[in-house]
Specification:
The complex is a heterodimer of chains A (93) and B (375). By secondary structure, chain A is an alpha+beta fold. Chain A is built from two helices and five strands; from the N terminus they run ββααβββ. Chain B has one helix and 27 strands. Classes of the chains: A alpha+beta (93), B mainly beta (375).
Chain lengths: 93, 375
């Protein structure tokens, strides 16, 4: 059992070239999982969260298909086999 | 896509770094500056407000402050004219976690004094000054300004609470100035440990107190290395000069069609020659009379002359932003500016005549010019 981070192409340079990163740590929330991910892949987490520990405005994080903006934010629970998908928001110009 | 190496100029050639809302471009020419080559875009889709070409210490290093709409901002460097760029694992301009601040954008990258070739500065949003002591690889905040007692009363301008301008004193590395919208001009005399507002005489049109200690919306400040104490300031309404490193400011809007504007550039060889591009008003930020004209003073603001030969003089609703003007160091000085509509203009005779270098770039926010091989 492992948590899977699914990454967009823009973050592949910071994951060793992979579009998925597996995390064996036991985590209760998506915030915990991002904290654990930072220990091995700080470059990914730098781009998902700002210095205040907040998810960047134009980044969306989905836990098993649910956008955490509409659940409990970084306190959204994750299971041992959850998939956490990071997606660039549909925005820009 | 393979890196673009087609714009590598020879020593003595001319290079323009052009930052836009959708990437950066390296534009190059020889010393004559009649024919120009526009390279492929770097950082496609990213906003590039800050660029620098640092030739101190034997380097030929380009630096770019890139802002992804999604993934944040970072300083990248290139030592091969943009063929390859660094992509730092960690974001190298970061506020301390206990500051409660998060980086939005890198507004200006400024190589430090010639006596310290590994020292660079960058000004960022929210307003703060960072320094690098390893030629731009790693950065740390200048604490004296980060913790300034007036910071809680700084208010964002239309472009955000940005530190957009860094002014150095080649004769005294302990002294420097920064400009913040909207906090005004601040100066340090002790290498950044303490900072004092230096805005006496600068109008704040938008405040009940028109001449506060700080809170002005300064748009740009320039000086010349040979006469660092003489500063020129383009304000949000107001055009000023100081002869005492900002202790006092005096109005020099003598004969300009408007004293509102952003861009300002000092001549590379003449400390009393300065260029501006006035805009009609705060409400209508385009050049007056729809004529694209640069205004030049050769007497430190005593008088200004319009320079429009080669520039559109009809139906030109153009805007030139604060860092979108630059000068090269050729004996016959080159002046360059870019517009929000993506047009890039240049002059190889100090502004007497102009040519269009490119007419269809993305909106231009930054131009930096240099002679290759000239530190």
């Amino acid at each position: 059992m492992a948590i899977t981070f699914a990454l967009p192409n823009a973050l592949v340079p910071y994951s060793g070239g992979r579009t998925k990163v597996m995390l064996q740590d036991r985590c209760r929330t998506v915030g915990d999982a991002l904290g654990a991910l930072a220990a091995s892949h700080a470059g990914i987490v730098d781009r998902v969260m700002d210095e205040r520990g907040e998810v960047r405005q134009h980044v969306n994080v989905f836990v098993d298909g649910e956008n955490i903006r509409f659940t409990e934010g970084l306190a959204t629970p994750v299971g041992d086999d959850s998939t956490i998908m990071i997606v660039a928001a549909v925005s820009g110009g | 896509m393979a890196p673009d190496t087609s714009t590598v100029p020879a020593d003595g050639g001319t290079v323009l770094l052009v930052g836009t809302m959708k990437g950066a471009f390296v534009v190059s020419s020889d010393a004559e500056r009649k024919e120009w080559h526009v390279g492929e875009p770097h950082f496609r889709g990213e906003t590039v407000y800050s660029l620098a070409f640092d030739q101190r210490g034997g380097r030929r290093r380009m630096l770019a402050g890139t802002q992804s709409f999604h993934w944040g901002s970072v300083v990248r460097t290139s030592d091969d004219f943009g063929a390859t760029w660094t992509s730092p694992e960690r974001q190298n301009v970061r506020f301390p976690e206990d500051s409660g601040l998060a980086l939005k954008n890198i507004w200006q990258i400024r190589p430090g004094p010639s006596t310290d070739p590994d020292l660079l500065y960058c000004g960022v949003e929210p307003a703060a000054l960072f320094e690098s002591r390893d030629a731009g690889d790693t950065w740390s905040p200048v604490e004296g300004l980060l913790n300034h007692e007036q910071r809680p009363r700084w208010v964002p301008g239309g472009g955000g609470l940005c530190m957009h301008t860094i002014v150095l004193d080649e004769a005294d590395p302990q002294r420097m100035g920064v400009a913040i919208s909207t906090a005004g001009f601040y100066r340090t005399d002790d290498g950044g440990q303490s900072w004092q507002p230096r805005n006496q005489g600068v109008r704040a049109q938008f405040l009940p107190d028109k001449y506060p200690e700080f809170g002005q919306c300064v748009h740009k400040v320039v000086n010349h290395p040979s006469r660092p104490e003489r500063l020129y300031l383009q304000n949000h309404w107001g055009l000023y000069r100081s002869d005492d490193w900002g202790d006092t400011w005096h109005d020099i809007a003598n004969g300009v069609p408007s004293d509102f504007g952003f861009a300002m550039q000092v001549h590379p060889h003449e400390p009393d020659t300065v260029y501006i591009v006035p805009l009609e008003s705060d409400e209508f930020r385009v050049v007056p009379e729809a004529k694209l004209r640069v205004f030049r003073t050769r007497d430190a603001g005593g008088s200004w002359e319009p320079l429009g030969e080669g520039l559109p003089q009809h139906d030109a609703y153009e805007t030139v932003l604060r860092d979108a003007m630059s000068a090269d160091g050729h004996p016959s000085a080159g002046l360059y500016f870019g517009t929000r509509s993506g047009k890039l203009f240049g002059s190889s005779n100090a502004g007497d005549t102009w040519m269009e270098i490119s007419d269809a770039l993305p909106p231009i926010v930054c131009v930096r010019a240099a002679v290759v091989g000239s530190a």
